[in-house]
Amino acid sequence: MHAPDHEFDPDDEYAGGFDAEMEVDDEAGTEALVWQLLLLINPGDEETALRQFGAWQDATADLDDGETEPAWVLKDIIDWTSGFQVHDDDAAAFVESITELVARWNLDLDWGVEDPTDDAFLDEASIRELLHVAYDALRSHGYTLWVWETGTDTVAGWMTLSRDDAAMRVVAPALGIEVRPAG
C-alpha cells in the first residue's frame, strides 16, 4: 500500500472540513478526489480510507485517468466495508449489507419490523421502500445514505455524515459519479 502522493496533502486539501460553498479545483487529479471521497465514506476511520486508497493506487497504477471509471474501481474496493451493491430485487442482500455497514458505528437500524431477516417481510419488501427506511433511520443518527446510478440492474451506494452532504455533492460528480440521497 502506498501513502497518498506528495502532489497533494490529503489533510490540507480540506483542512477546515468540507465547506458547503467549496468548488473542486479543476486541476485536482482523480487520485486527490478519490482520497476525499474515501474520507467522506469512512467518517472517523482514516485507517480504512488509507487502506482503500492503497488498493485504489494498486488497481490504477498502470492506467491513465481517462482509462478508469472511478465508481467501478471503487465499488470493488469498498464493497461490504464502506459501500454496497446489490441486485434491484434482492431485499435480503440489501438489508444484510446495510446492517453490516452500520455496525461499524454500532448502529442497529429500525426497519419497521421485529425481524428484518424474516422471509415474509423480505418477500414483500422492495429495494426502493427499504432505501427510504434506511435513509430515514440513518438521518436520525446523523448519517446520509447515498446511491449512485450504476446503469445496471443493481443498486449501489455508501453512507456519509449528514454534515458532509454538500461535500459529497461536489466530490462524487467531480469523479463522474452521479449520486443522490436515497431518501
Structure description:
It is a single chain. The chain is α+β, with helices and mostly antiparallel strands. The protein has one domain (10-181). It has helices spanning 10-13, 30-41, 46-60, 70-78, 91-103, 119-124, 127-139, 165-174, and strands at 83-87, 143-148, 154-161, 179-181. The chain has a four-stranded antiparallel sheet with strand order 1-3-2-4, sandwiched between helices. A hairpin with a 5-residue loop joins strand 2 (143-148) and strand 3 (154-161). Helix 2 runs antiparallel to helix 3 (46-60), helix 2 packs antiparallel against helix 8 and helix 3 crosses helix 4 (70-78). It is globular, with a radius of gyration of 17 Å. The termini are far apart. 34% of the residues are buried. This is DUF6630 domain-containing protein. Residues 34-181 form the DUF6630 domain. It comes from Luteimonas padinae. Pfam families: DUF6630.
Q: What does the radius of gyration come to? A: 17 Å
| Spatial order of strands in the largest sheet | 1-3-2-4
Q: Mean pLDDT, nearest integer?
A: 87
Which percent bin holds the helix content?
Answer: 40-55%
Output the helix-strand order.
HHHHEHHHEEHE
Task: Give the low-pLDDT segments.
Answer: 1-22
Number of helices: 8
Strand content: 5-15%
Structural class: alpha+beta
* DSSP strand tally: 4
The biggest sheet amounts to: 4 strands, antiparallel
Q: List the domain count as a whole number.
A: 1
Distance between the termini: 36 Å
- Cα shape: globular
